[in-house]
Amino acid sequence: MEPQADIALIGLAVMGQNLILNMNDHGFTVAVFNRTVAKVDEFLAREAKGTKVIGAHSLAELAGMLKRPRRVMFMVKAGKAVDELIEEILPFLEKGDIIIDGGNSLFDDTTRRTKYLAEKGLLFIGTGVSGGEEGARHGPSIMPGGNKEAWPFVKDIFQGIAAKVEDGTPCCDWVGDSGAGHYVKMVHNGIEYGDMQLICEAYQLMKDGLGMTPAEMQAVFTAWNKTELDSFLIEITSHIFAYNDVDGQPLVDKILDTAGQKGTGKWTVINSADLGIPVTLIAEAVYARCVSALKEDRVAASKILKGPKPKISGDRAAFVEDIRLALYASKIVSYAQGYMLMRAAAKEYTWNLNYGGVALMWRGGCIIRSRFLGDIKSAYDRNPNLTNLLLDKFFKGEIKKSQGSWRRVIATAARRGIPTPAFSTALNFYDSYRTDRLPANLLQAQRDYFGAHTYERVDQPRGQFFHTNWTGKGGVTSSSTYSV
Length: 484
Fold this sequence. Notes:
By secondary structure, the protein is of the alpha/beta class. 52% of the residues lie in helices and 7% in strands. It has helices at 14-25, 38-45, 59-64, 80-89, 107-119, 132-138, 151-161, 180-209, 214-224, 232-242, 264-275, 280-292, 295-302, 316-349, 355-362, 372-382, 393-416, 421-433, 440-451, and strands at 7-10, 30-33, 54-55, 71-74, 98-101, 123-130, 141-146, 176-177. The chain has an eight-stranded mixed β-sheet, sandwiched between helices. The radius of gyration is 26 Å and the shape is globular. The model has no long low-confidence stretch (mean pLDDT 95).
């Protein structure tokens, strides 16, 4: 039989199925396979009925259906499953064929797999895919990286199925070598953690502080979605507040307050520590989920540990506007930190990242899609070498107009005992970043005192290190100077 499929996709969970149907809608013939083979027949008989999708019952059969170079995309669980599937399909592929991992893989794994398959003459792409089930079906954000020789063979498919911005530009372009695509997706997910935590803190301020009902908050979030905060997450939050359970009561109030996580936010924080980049807001968002998981401990502590009552008095409408601006300013800091991390990663891993292009890829289809990302693209269009978003003239002005509200909200929350870890760390970072002299000089003195770790001096050139015998008993020998 003459090969007829443009691409194969392995993994028929919801994301995989929706990507297949999306590819079919755009004129591509897709061959499909699943480890549980019965799911292939079920998919063809139901969701894919009447399409050009063709099914295979073995990897050998799947490979035989593909035009050359063969393009095989995995949509399976990250980690061991990807490595196992690579080994299983290798006997049926030949030099020049392309394997694509579309799952949420750790970027280090993608770097390793790119090198491993290149040694065997195969091309590998590790691509982030964001947008959830709906995005996969109708247009996700796609962030491919890996072996660039593979890009021309998948570009039409990926850009065809990707979300499009207003002028029709696809939210997909080549990101960079080795693990760059999955790295950018990892940072996207870290920022997503931050955005969600900021929204949750705004919710708690309104619910516990102002005593607002879900219906009242639904109206607020609907209005916010017509402002600078216009985004997918603000929009769906308004929908959540409007959704009632079968008894007519708001469903959101019945959901247990313990948050899950799949690990990508944690990966972002771990890598930021490795690179020495303070993505403090993403870190607080990750730890806020960890605190939420301590449900039984928190319930017990609430009966023992006392603090002020959360009620916030005064002009409710004015304070709601303060919350909006505090959320906006904190969001700017979160993205500034995310872009700082990508700049450091590009230097560390020798990637040539297009920061405005990344904003464009995130502009549509993905979970963090928003009007705000258009402003980030404009900032990098003005200055491709911008070191920090906070230094761009537009964002500098936005912080200026929001700063009074930002500080009022955090001060009020502290006085009323309402936790705002993400709002607060964002402001702390902003104040630290704009401070020309931090107390780290004392910290260095302490380190030198107890460990002879040395210090630099303000009256001497950078790179010269000194040690003081602080007690007169320690001698002159110092530790070697190094940074972790």
